[in-house]
Design goal:
InterPro entries: CheY-like_superfamily, GGDEF_dom, Nucleotide_cyclase, Rev_trsase/Diguanyl_cyclase. By secondary structure, this protein is of the alpha/beta class. 45% of the residues lie in helices and 16% in strands. The protein has helices at 18-26, 37-46, 64-72, 101-130, 155-166, 177-186, 201-211, 233-238, 251-276, 293-310, 325-332, 335-350, 374-389, 419-435; strands at 7-10, 31-34, 51-55, 79-82, 93-95, 146-150, 170-174, 191-195, 221-224, 243-245, 314-321, 356-361, 364-370, 406-412.
Length: 436
């Protein structure tokens, strides 16, 4: 049984994009192809498409980005151009040659999540404004981009560094993985470029270390191959690289791709900081920094309306502290109350930036997960409960530390359903799970 298409491809012929589409299909990014602008616009009306890919040789290529965005309506549609090294107006990502499917699948995931985050950012500003709180505009830091270049000196690597510097970026060079990590831990970077040794071991070591660090995890990584040879691109992209450039790639091309990654990363950081800044707005729960019941109800109505207008799924999760004997003793001594600020902070860190976390009652939390179907929301909520359940909280000098377990309830918004109704169903699911 085929799933609904997720990616709209606009191409006059299959020559450039056929292999790429097959690869995306195999990765779960099912594609559908339109030969004309009119057919593409009709497809956006008929299907819940998440992104668009345009063959730069299409005769309507210049006008298509704007036309597709208008056809998508309230839903922000990321647009990728294949066959052009320069991102024109309305294009989120331009690639001169068809990329490896795994690479584009990862970039599509990033672009779609970024689009959802921007949608949520606008909604949250509206909600907070209604409650007398202002949210920062989310403007990126205007200072020059900072890019780390790690690897032994080489004329091509030095050429790339010079090209990035000429483009206005601030470059920091690290000759070894050790110095690279020193720099990464000392200051912030917008992207990192790793110079591949013959066996790629130093670059893979840096990439692996960064992906195990929550602060460094989201910094985009590019690998510049030292020589032509047999490499497993799928493995490299799954290791966390956002970009892999062949040894024959000219320095200006790889520089443009790295700068695009860095600009996108800085924009995402600005939105994340703005959203997180709402915690100090004075309208949040004072103990946990999460949404209050009143604020959550107000925002959930707006999020539900937006999900319907954008034809995106929306799921609600309710997490309630379970009744256990250790928790009964922790409540009596006030130790559970003392743990609540840490638990709230953990909930806040464990959700995505576009998710809304609230404290509905002293021991009840709720999550609104945009663009997330029910099964995926349950996995997310159970993961959050499992992580918190691995943390030991102080129960006083004469008792062993206690752990906090949660019961989880989930509901996905149905067509025509109100925000209050879906929240009620999630609560009912919580009690059904207890009965089971």
């Amino acid at each position: 049984m085929y799933s609904d298409p997720r990616v709209l491809v606009v191409a006059l012929t299959d020559g450039r994009i056929e292999a790429l589409c097959r690869g995306l299909d195999s990765l779960g990014w099912r594609t559908m192809t339109a030969r004309s602008g009119g057919a593409a616009i009709a497809a956006l009306s008929d299907f819940k498409l998440e992104a668009a890919i345009i063959d730069a040789d299409h005769p309507e290529a210049a006008a298509l980005p704007e036309a597709l965005r208008l056809a998508a309506g309230a839903r922000r549609l990321p647009v990728v151009s294949i066959g052009s090294a320069t991102a024109e107006d309305g294009v989120d990502l331009a690639m001169a040659e068809p990329p490896h499917p795994t690479q584009l699948g990862l970039r599509l995931e990033q672009l779609v999540r970024a689009a959802i985050t921007e949608e949520e950012f606008r909604l949250r500003r509206q909600t907070l404004a209604l409650h007398g709180a202002a949210l920062d505009a989310g403007e990126p830091d205007p200072r020059p981009l900072r890019i780390l270049i790690a690897g032994a000196p080489d004329h091509r690597f030095i050429g790339l560094s010079n090209t990035l510097t000429q483009a206005g970026a601030e470059i920091v060079a690290a000759p070894t993985p050790y110095t690279a990590f020193d720099y990464l831990h000392e200051s912030a970077f917008d992207a990192a470029v790793l110079w591949g040794a013959p066996d790629h071991a130093p670059a893979l070591s840096i990439a692996s270390g960064m992906k195990r660090n929550t602060r460094l995890y989201h910094i985009p990584l590019a690998l510049y191959l030292r020589s032509e040879g047999e490499i497993n691109l799928g493995e490299l992209y799954n290791r966390g690289f956002s970009e892999v450039a062949a040894a024959s790639t000219p320095e200006p091309d790889i520089a443009a791709r790295v700068l695009a990654l860095a600009h996108t990363h800085r924009r995402h950081l600005a939105i994340r900081r703005a959203l997180e800044g709402a915690r100090g707005s004075g309208v949040m729960d004072p103990t946990t920094g999460l949404f209050t019941p009143t604020l959550f109800a107000s925002h959930l109505g707006r999020v539900a309306d937006a999900a319907t207008a954008r034809r995106r799924p929306l799921s609600i999760c309710v997490l309630k502290v379970s009744e256990t004997e250790p928790l009964t003793h922790a409540r009596k001594g006030g130790w559970l109350d003392r743990a609540m600020p840490q638990i709230g902070a953990m909930v806040s860190r464990l959700v995505r930036v576009e998710d809304t976390a609230a404290r509905l009652a002293p021991e009840v939390f709720a999550l609104a997960l945009p663009a997330t179907p029910g099964p995926a929301a349950r996995l997310a909520a159970e993961r959050i409960a499992a992580v918190i359940g691995c943390t030991a909280f102080d129960a006083g000098a004469e008792r062993s530390p206690f752990v906090v377990e949660f019961r989880v309830g989930i509901a996905e918004l149905k067509p025509g359903e109100s925000a209050a109704a879906v929240l009620e169903r999630a609560s009912a699911d919580l009690h059904a799970a207890r009965a089971a």
